């Protein structure tokens, strides 16, 4: 770390800031909140500000949580002016200066969600009550995200969701204090459908195996709607218990059902096991209705795909971000993450890093840590340079809208990280939906809660 | 006093003092010091201590007295939570109806499950209760989603009816306007102490429940339960039917669990299905054995022990370790961190597992026995002072 | 009809895993009277024997290939397993390919050793202690074992494929006169079933037809009398503990290709295997096997769409429901002996 700003990075930053200021005439005016350093929960009084990183450290998603934590540590390093600055250099907003947030050095506390709503809330509460965290972020499942988001709304801090893909997070469970950068089931479906149509034709019959909880249902509903819209039929939708480890009895009847595509609405360990079972049954070598039998995994995670080994080859799915993207933001992020840890970041790591940057930037622009000020700064915020192209935080539901990646399991991986290849980058316009879309209806944001 | 023997009265008084002064006792380190990591005196964890204390006290009435090892007690905790949250959704955020209903429903479920399960004893009984709890968990997670909101957990939405809710009332759980999450923070020099409404409510309820448990332990009914544990066959030969007694104990402990669930929902208005999973049932078994099954204070200590590890050790990360050992030379610092690292943060389960083994190997009677050993060492030399476990503890047998 | 045959096969397959684990658990109950909550962890250790052997066999040296680049743009490092450079690429890669079957040989001594150490070092001291203490100490041990595995291998599942020779599936339907592709079943799962049957037969044969087995059975029935006859029953029971651990470990090794192993797979099986043992009846080896297959088959049938449409969610609770019914109808499970763990 260096205190002097006469570094290459410092220079770059200053000039970039000037450029940014010129290029964006309608800069958000945060002066309303400017001197509001009180009147909200956990207002930082000293020279530091504490963020709470709440990730799964035990249970099946522990590795994903560990990757999220790496990304957070990297983000904190960059915010405090260490390292090479990562995506701070490519971010379209130049409010961040590498001197912490609003001049306060960023510190963090960590906790274990155990991928359980109760434990996650307990951990988040201890961060808020004991450590004075001003923002909570992280998580690797939708149940946890919704539960913690609700808590943050009640307590009065900002929640920046980590990996959560259910429509509900910014649908019927949306909250004024909660923000999601990650994409959702509807977007996956909207992005995948045209690719599937191009590859597999319009005359197909799909068989769904769906994890029997809210995330699985919303994703299945989305995929079914999107594929039926392009002419596919749906043979069946079978709900599989979350605790299933052996999917053979769900996979076995697929071949006789007349379906020629199997859609696995599973994530994590479920996905690894169901895909392994499906491949073991030799489904992919079979011919049904004169067509090759195909398998689709709508939500891919590279970390988890690794567990399925060879079985992912040639299987389509979608992902929020992938390290092989070649835009400047992604390259900068992969470089600083890879140099620090020795391997490329996962999509979970990416979304967590971005969420931290977005929060810091919003605080900087609002001139306060007040959750209401930050919410106002994030709502409708348009940005670029964070790896997903042009992105917008929609004000009405706090969901980010951006391009979605359609990926395929790579046939000839060159390294252990090189498992997925990007097939198509579906533009944002194709995956956008109205705020009152029936799959997202039912909830309301409510008012932002500053907690005091 | 209160119809208790002298020994029990002093135990009750000690517990009362401990719970009332918990905000001080649990926050022994200055807020800004490196050791502040070990402070447990923040509202959420204090609430959890006493709520799980209630849960474990109730479990001990069944297990400690009758010897029937239920492996499905978490189901009642979950049912209690769901009932309470439903009351919040329908009636409003006043916690009284919720707590009331949670005790009633869990009592009813306990009656049903107990009536069936108590037809068997030993491990067969354990598996029956486990089966019921696992079925409740699986159904709550999936098929019963309209009732339980599945994976996400049951929450209160703005669109819920809340018939008795008016705009004047707080929009979070409260008792006649007293918000559960309101906290008064006392700053005394470098120290800071949190006094939380919800905690004191839970603590008072726990004291009440502790008192009831003492009365049960000392009553003829309690004696009958101990007789069942000691030798059920002999009891049968004397012409007594033990079933109604065990069933009563089962229902009482189920109601304790329901009360704990209702309080959990009142402190934090969300009810998740994981509360009913076998791991949660196993946790209360571990709490009781760890603290000392059959003793009055043991289960509370065990509950505190496990919750402390879960919430404090899991939060120690490498940055914290660096702070602790910063005064050491670099080489030694890194070495120490490398040694400690696997046991904290994401490795907190490992520490917990090792502690389980150590306690059960070296202290067969649980923490209470450890306390007694320490106490007997100090006895005569020095009046018993600090260590809470060393305070007067009364094994039932 | 075809669906029923398929689910029957699935049930037998699931059942063989349940039966193997339950068999080991019952051996420990029956001989030592110990409730072993670490049994799931032994199963998991077995699966990680396969993972470890695969890792050992594919230990590699790195060479730098300047023509290719890694994700950071540096020259790529190409990994070549030592074994391929020693035996040539073809033989080498086929040895790696066969790592799971080879792991059986690797796992037997390791698991017997683990079982022996566990019994002598820990379990021995808990014979006279209440069952609750046994549960606590073995549960603690299970947590420790799985956390240690997590420290080494991470939390993600690790792919451990079966040899290429067993890829794909066998077309039963064409044997039975169905259309092709109607009743197919993966080769490796068939292997698993026959392997399980072999192990079960071997354990029963060992207990039934050897002197050692006879003594152990006598000890299970009446430990004191056997002891009075001057037989050192404790030593034999220790060996039985090792054998039980090996059975669990082998079940795990062979299971690795079916589901990629992860560190908490033991906990996933733990509760289920206890249910199986109790439904079978405490202390009864045939009961454990029978209950394993029965529950496996019932679980498979309950996951059929036709049944799920009538009773949604039935596949999630069937095992517990059946357990309750059986225990209510037959107080000691299917074949339980009187007086074992009833207090």
TrEMBL record, chain A:
InterPro entries linked: BCAA_transport (IPR051010), Leu-bd (IPR028081), Peripla_BP_I (IPR028082), TAT_signal (IPR006311), TAT_signal_bac_arc (IPR019546)
SUPFAM superfamilies: Periplasmic binding protein-like I
Source organism, top-level taxon: Bacteria
Gene Ontology BP annotations: amino acid transport
Keywords, ordered alphabetically: Amino-acid transport, Signal, Transport
Residue ranges constituting the Leucine-binding protein domain according to the UniProt record: 48-410
Keyword Transcription regulation set for record: no
Family of the protein in this entry: Belongs to the leucine-binding protein family.
Protein name: Amino acid/amide ABC transporter substrate-binding protein, HAAT family
Organism from which the protein derives: Litoreibacter ascidiaceicola
Taxon lineage: Bacteria, Pseudomonadati, Pseudomonadota, Alphaproteobacteria, Rhodobacterales
From TrEMBL, chain B:
Cellular component terms per the entry's GO annotation: plasma membrane
KW Membrane (keyword) present: yes
Ranges that cross the membrane: 12-29, 49-71, 91-116, 123-144, 198-217, 244-264, 284-309, 321-344, 350-368
Locations listed in the record: Cell membrane
Record field: compositional bias (Low complexity): 388-397
Keyword list, A-Z: Cell membrane, Membrane, Transmembrane, Transmembrane helix
Region described as Disordered: 377-397
Record-linked Pfam families: BPD_transp_2
Entry membrane topology: Multi-pass membrane protein
Keyword Nucleotidyltransferase: no
Molecular-function annotations in GO: branched-chain amino acid transmembrane transporter activity
PANTHER family the record matches: ABC TRANSPORTER ATP-BINDING PROTEIN, HIGH-AFFINITY BRANCHED-CHAIN AMINO ACID TRANSPORT SYSTEM PERMEASE
Protein name: Amino acid/amide ABC transporter membrane protein 2, HAAT family
From TrEMBL, chain C:
InterPro entries named in the record: ABC_transp_permease (IPR001851), BCAA_transport_permease (IPR052157)
GO cellular component, one term: plasma membrane
Gene Ontology MF terms: transmembrane transporter activity
Pfam families: BPD_transp_2
Membrane topology, record value: Multi-pass membrane protein
Transmembrane residue ranges: 16-35, 42-61, 98-118, 190-216, 237-258, 270-298, 310-329
Top-rank taxon, per record: Bacteria
Locations listed in the record: Cell membrane
Keyword S-adenosyl-L-methionine tagged: no
GO biological process assignments: amino acid transport
UniProtKB keywords: Amino-acid transport, Cell membrane, Membrane, Transmembrane, Transmembrane helix, Transport
Residue ranges that the Swiss-Prot or TrEMBL entry lists as coiled coil: none
Predominant location category: membrane
Protein family per UniProt: Belongs to the binding-protein-dependent transport system permease family. LivHM subfamily.
Name of the protein in question: Amino acid/amide ABC transporter membrane protein 1, HAAT family
Protein's organism: Litoreibacter ascidiaceicola
């Amino acid at each position: 770390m260096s205190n002097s700003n006469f570094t290459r990075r410092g220079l770059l930053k200053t000039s970039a800031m000037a450029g940014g200021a010129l290029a964006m005439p309608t800069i958000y005016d945060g002066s309303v909140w400017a001197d509001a350093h009180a009147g909200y929960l956990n207002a930082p009084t000293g020279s530091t500000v504490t963020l709470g990183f709440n990730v799964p450290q035990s249970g099946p998603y522990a590795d994903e949580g560990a990757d999220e934590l790496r990304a957070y540590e990297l983000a904190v390093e960059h915010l405090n002016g260490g390292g090479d600055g990562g995506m701070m250099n490519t971010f379209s907003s130049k409010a961040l200066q590498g001197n912490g947030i609003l001049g306060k050095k960023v510190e963090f506390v960590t906790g274990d969600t155990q991928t359980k709503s109760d434990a996650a809330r307990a951990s988040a509460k201890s961060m808020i009550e004991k450590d004075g965290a001003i923002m909570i972020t992280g998580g690797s499942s939708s149940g946890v995200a919704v539960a913690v988001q609700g808590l943050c709304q009640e307590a009065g801090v900002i929640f920046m969701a980590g990996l959560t893909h259910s429509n509900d997070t910014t649908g019927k469970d949306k909250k004024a204090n909660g923000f999601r950068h990650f994409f959702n089931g509807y977007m996956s479906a909207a992005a995948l459908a045209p690719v599937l149509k191009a590859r597999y034709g319009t005359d197909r019959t799909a068989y769904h195996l769906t994890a029997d909880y809210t995330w699985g249902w919303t994703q299945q509903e989305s995929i079914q709607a999107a594929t039926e819209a392009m002419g596919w039929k749906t043979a069946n939708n079978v709900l599989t218990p979350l605790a299933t480890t052996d999917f053979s009895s769900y996979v076995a009847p697929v071949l006789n059902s007349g379906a020629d595509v199997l859609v696995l609405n599973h994530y994590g360990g479920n996905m690894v096991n169901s895909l392994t079972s499906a491949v073991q049954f030799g489904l992919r070598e079979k011919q049904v209705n004169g067509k090759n039998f195909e398998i689709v995994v709508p939500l891919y995670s590279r970390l988890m795909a690794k567990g399925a080994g060879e079985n992912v080859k040639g299987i389509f799915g979608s992902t929020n971000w992938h390290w092989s993207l070649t835009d400047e933001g992604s390259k900068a992020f992969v470089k600083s993450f890879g140099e620090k840890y020795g391997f490329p970041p996962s999509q979970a790591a990416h979304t967590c890093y971005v969420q931290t940057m977005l929060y810091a930037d919003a605080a900087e622009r609002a001139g306060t840590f007040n959750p209401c000020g930050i919410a106002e700064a994030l709502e409708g915020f348009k940005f670029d340079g964070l790896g997903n192209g042009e992105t917008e935080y929609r004000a009405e539901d706090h969901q980010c809208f951006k391009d979605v990646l359609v990926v395929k399991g790579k046939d000839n991986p060159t390294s252990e990280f090189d498992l997925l290849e990007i097939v198509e980058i579906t533009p944002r316009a194709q995956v956008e939906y109205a705020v009152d879309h029936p799959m997202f209806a039912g909830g309301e944001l409510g008012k932002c809660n500053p907690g005091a | 006093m209160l119809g208790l023997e002298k020994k029990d009265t002093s135990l009750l008084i000690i517990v009362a003092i401990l719970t009332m002064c918990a905000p001080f006792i649990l926050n022994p380190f200055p807020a800004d010091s490196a050791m502040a990591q070990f402070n447990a005196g923040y509202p959420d964890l204090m609430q959890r201590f006493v709520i799980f204390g209630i849960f474990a006290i109730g479990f001990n009435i069944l297990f400690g007295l009758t010897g029937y090892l239920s492996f499905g007690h978490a189901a009642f905790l979950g049912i209690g939570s769901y009932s309470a949250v439903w009351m919040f959704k329908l009636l409003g955020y006043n916690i009284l109806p919720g707590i009331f209903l949670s005790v009633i429903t869990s009592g009813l479920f306990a009656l049903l499950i107990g009536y069936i399960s108590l037809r068997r004893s030993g491990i067969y009984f354990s598996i029956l209760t486990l089966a019921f709890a696992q079925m409740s968990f699986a159904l709550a997670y999936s098929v019963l989603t309209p009732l339980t909101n599945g994976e996400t957990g049951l929450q209160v939405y703005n669109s819920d009816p809340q018939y008795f809710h008016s705009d004047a009332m707080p929009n979070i759980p409260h008792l006649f306007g007293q918000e559960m999450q309101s906290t008064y923070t006392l700053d005394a020099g470098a120290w800071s102490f949190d006094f939380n409404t919800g905690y004191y409510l839970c603590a008072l309820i726990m004291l009440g429940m502790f008192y009831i448990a003492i009365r049960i332990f000392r009553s003829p009914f309690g004696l009958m339960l101990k007789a069942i544990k000691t030798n059920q066959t002999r009891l049968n030969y004397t012409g007594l039917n033990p079933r109604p007694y065990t069933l009563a104990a089962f229902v009482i402990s189920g109601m304790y669990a329901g009360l704990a669930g209702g309080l959990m929902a009142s402190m934090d208005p969300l009810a998740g299905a994981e509360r009913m999973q076998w791991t949660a049932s196993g946790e209360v078994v571990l709490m009781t054995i760890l603290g000392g099954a059959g003793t009055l204070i043991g289960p509370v200590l065990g509950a505190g022990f496990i919750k402390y590890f879960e919430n404090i050790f899991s939060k120690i990360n490498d940055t914290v370790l660096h702070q602790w050992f910063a005064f050491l030379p670099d080489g030694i610092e890194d070495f120490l961190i490398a040694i400690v690292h696997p046991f904290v943060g994401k490795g907190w389960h490992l520490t917990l597992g090792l502690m389980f083994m150590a306690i059960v190997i070296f202290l067969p009677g649980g923490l209470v026995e450890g306390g007694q050993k320490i106490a007997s060492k100090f006895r005569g030399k020095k009046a018993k002072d600090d260590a809470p476990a060393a305070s007067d503890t009364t094994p039932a047998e | 009809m075809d669906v029923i045959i398929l689910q029957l096969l699935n049930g037998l397959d699931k059942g063989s895993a349940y039966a193997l684990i339950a068999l080991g658990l019952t051996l420990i109950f029956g001989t030592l009277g110990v409730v072993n909550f670490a049994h799931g962890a032994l199963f998991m250790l077995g699966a990680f024997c396969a993972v470890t052997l695969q890792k050992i066999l594919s230990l590699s040296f790195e060479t730098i290939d300047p023509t290719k680049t890694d994700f950071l743009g540096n020259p790529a490092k190409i990994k070549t397993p030592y074994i391929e450079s020693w035996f040539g690429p073809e033989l080498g890669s086929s040895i790696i390919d066969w790592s799971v079957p080879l792991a059986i040989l690797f796992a037997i001594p390791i698991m017997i050793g683990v079982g022996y150490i566990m019994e002598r070092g820990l379990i021995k001291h808990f014979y006279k202690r209440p069952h609750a203490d046994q549960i606590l100490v073995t549960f603690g041990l299970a947590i420790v074992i799985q956390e240690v595995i997590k420290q080494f291998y991470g939390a993600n599942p690790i792919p451990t494929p079966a040899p290429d020779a067993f890829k794909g599936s066998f077309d039963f339907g064409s044997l039975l006169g169905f259309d092709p592709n109607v009743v197919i079943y993966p080769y490796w799962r068939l292997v698993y079933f026959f392997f399980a049957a072999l192990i079960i037969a071997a354990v029963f044969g060992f207990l039934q037809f050897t002197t050692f087995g006879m003594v152990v059975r006598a000890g299970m029935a009446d430990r004191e009398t056997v002891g009075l006859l001057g037989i050192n029953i404790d030593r034999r029971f220790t060996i039985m503990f090792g054998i039980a651990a090996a059975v669990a470990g082998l079940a795990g090794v062979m299971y690795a290709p079916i589901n990629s192993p992860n560190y908490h797979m033991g906990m996933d099986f733990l509760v289920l295997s206890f249910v199986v043992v109790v439904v079978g009846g405490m202390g009864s080896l045939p009961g454990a096997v029978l209950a394993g297959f029965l529950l496996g088959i019932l679980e498979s049938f309950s996951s059929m769409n036709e049944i799920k449409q009538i009773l949604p969610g039935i596949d999630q609770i069937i095992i517990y429901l059946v357990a309750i019914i059986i225990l209510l109808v037959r107080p000691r499970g299917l074949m339980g002996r009187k007086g074992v763990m009833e207090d």
